[in-house]
Amino acid sequence: xxxxxxxxxxxxxxxxxxxxxxxxxxxxxxxxxxxxxxxxxxxxxxxxxxxxxxxxxxxxxxxxxxxxxxxxxxxxxxxxxxxxxxxxxxxxxxxxxxxxxxxxxxxxxxxxxxxxxxxxxxxxxxxxxxxxxxxxxxxxxxxxxxxxxxxxxxxxxxxxxxxxxxxxxxxxxxxxxxxxxxxxxxxxxxxxxxxxxxxxxxxxxxxxxxxxxxxxxxxxxxxxxxxxxxxxxxxxxxxxxxxxxxxxxxxxxxxxxxxxxxxx
Length: 264
Description:
alpha/beta; TIM Barrel; eight-stranded parallel beta barrel; 10 strands; globular
């Protein structure tokens, strides 16, 4: 691994080997998502708790203060929307020149294994890796499932993660699953970070699955809606950071959440 690649990865994955990525890229297919209508205002109080932002170039340029931010994982796939026929029909949206110009620490791209566009999205990943490796930029593959949430089982996720790693992704973002998540992680030869998916009903539900996933080998999280759509986003971010970087249990995280909430 070359120096530039190591340096960029070290910005994202902290010395303890763990990471807390905050995605605010949802608008690229959802439009002005609830609580993310003004991304710059949403993230301002949360930056102290996350290790990196996952964001599109448009929101990065328009809403993120270049003098006061965290390392950037640049979303570079898109081309579909919730109003369209198939979220899986994505392409690469951002050139390597733009990636370097924006000083991204990494890039992120979705793959849709098992969809009608499986081949296209996997080749998008492979082609992106081909380009980014020449410049020392790590690629994070996102094992997306579009609107088909029933695909979130260990067999499917394990397949998707392994394929993404085989094609050269340096990190894989995938969903946690209740059964056999450890097999998903063990079958993937590169680090795995957990996605949040739809907003959970309670804070403890989030703390439970994040803690379980960390115990089963994930190195961290890439959670957005369960943080900034919370009624108490700062308390949520603080509690999650404690699980990721301080080995807090769900019970301890819940206590920290309540304490931080009451102090705000």
